[in-house]
Amino acid sequence: MCVNLVNRNVEVFDCRGKKNNKAVEAFAVLIPRIVKAVQSSDKKKDFNVKQYDVSYVPMRALNTSGNDCGAYSLKFIECHLLGLDFSLVNDENIQEARHKITFDLWEAANDEALQYRMSTFKPPKRAPEKMVELF
């Protein structure tokens, strides 16, 4: 799914052709409530809590082996982000894409600067927040 906060739209990409209307619609109702909950108090009164529109992006059936969902997902996100045509992601080239993703992850895991940053990372402390009721 791709949530567009500006256009108030949820685009659903599913290469198996299934429509999970119940789950997606519930999510589309919840998004504006979450956004409103994090708004500053002066903007909350003017905020529209209307459900986001849901659209299903036409996808051809892919992933016949069932083992490449992660690779397909990453590549669809990449195409969407870069404005590329989704036809670039297909069963013929997904294996090479999996190898490239694997190599990129291996390369990052062996990067000394990244290893150091990861070993010294301390999560930020958060101030306790009051609970926000969304419904």
Mind sketching the topology for me?
Layout: E1 2-4, E2 9-13, H1 21-38, H2 41-44, E3 53-57, H3 69-82, H4 94-109, H5 112-119
Parallel strand pairs: 2-3
Antiparallel strand pairs: 1-2
Question: What features would you describe in this structure?
Answer:
This protein has 135 residues and is mainly alpha-helical. The protein has 2 domains: 1-59, no CATH class; 63-122. It has 5 helices and 3 strands, in the order ββααβααα. Strands 1-2-3 form a 3-stranded mixed β-sheet, with helices on one face. Strand 1 (2-4) and strand 2 form a beta hairpin. It is flat, with a radius of gyration of 20 Å. The mean pLDDT is 80. Belongs to the peptidase C48 family. Keywords: Hydrolase, Protease.
SSE order, one letter for each helix or strand? EEHHEHHH
Q: What number of structural domains do the residues give? A: 2
Please estimate the helix content.
Answer: 40-55%
Record field, number of beta strands: 3
Mean pLDDT: 80
The residue ranges in which pLDDT falls below 50 over 5 or more consecutive positions are none
Portion in beta strands: 5-15%
Main β sheet profile: 3 strands, mixed
Q: What separation lies between the terminal Cα atoms?
A: 23 Å
Count of runs of 4 or more consecutive helical residues: 5
Strand order, largest beta sheet: 1-2-3
Structural class: mainly alpha
- The coarse silhouette is flat
Pfam families: Peptidase_C48
Domain Ubiquitin-like protease family profile: 2-108
Family: Belongs to the peptidase C48 family.
Protein name: Ubiquitin-like protease family profile domain-containing protein
